[in-house]
Amino acid sequence: MSRLPFNQGQPAFIPLSTFQRYPEAEMVERSRAFYADIRRRKTVREFTSQPVPREVIENALRAAGTAPSGANHQPWHFAVVSDPELKRKIREGAETEEREFYTHRAPQEWKDALAPLGTDSDKPFLETAPYLIAIFGQKKTVLDDGSEIKNYYVPESISIAAGFLIAALHHAGLATLTHTPSPMNFLNQLLDRPSHEKPYILLVVGYPADDCMVPNIGKKSLEEIASFY
């Protein structure tokens, strides 16, 4: 259940009081510092079981919840899993789908693209990492009075919020993995989520293992990803 995504009975618009402008030199330095920090982020597949303070996860989720969304409907739900037995069941469900993917569903071209990353159907990190966050997109919002409103631009909204979440967790000192077994309907059943919610990402969160290895890959240059007109 949810409320309307606007403050009912209050003014439709209010003065912008949260924006903070910086001198240009400081802007440049802040942009450099953010880039230097975010470029350290790596997707990892080897985690420790070391506990993570729940408050860190909660604050990162609060940050994700500030993301822009279609009509401000905020069509997302974050199901946070730390229970060992539930993580075991999620691993079982994910590995079932992954075995089918690697054996029958994936064309050879797709498997060739994944080969440099060293992925396969075995997903021990789903049990080892202290937290799993299943990110669901909501086709509709069910209000407190039982009525429903349609949500718009759900995939785009989910993608932006997931980006906020990954950046927030990295900023806090944690590693993540965006795991996307397909299909992921088993998550609805295991996490008791309604049928109008679709799982998009299973985010694995924790500390990287001391001997963690990552693929020796790079990112495209600015000239390859951007055009200025």
TrEMBL record:
Q: Name any one Pfam family assigned in the record.
A: Nitroreductase
InterPro entries, sorted: Nitroreductase, Nitroreductase-like, Nitroreductase/BluB
Checking SUPFAM superfamilies in the record gives: FMN-dependent nitroreductase-like
Print the keywords alphabetically: Flavoprotein, FMN, Oxidoreductase
Residue ranges of every copy of the Nitroreductase domain listed in the record:
38-207
Q: Does the keyword tRNA-binding apply?
A: no
PANTHER family attached to this UniProt entry: IODOTYROSINE DEIODINASE 1, NADPH NITROREDUCTASE
- Supply the name of the protein: Nitroreductase family protein
Organism source for this protein?
Chromobacterium piscinae
Upper lineage is:
Bacteria, Pseudomonadati, Pseudomonadota, Betaproteobacteria, Neisseriales
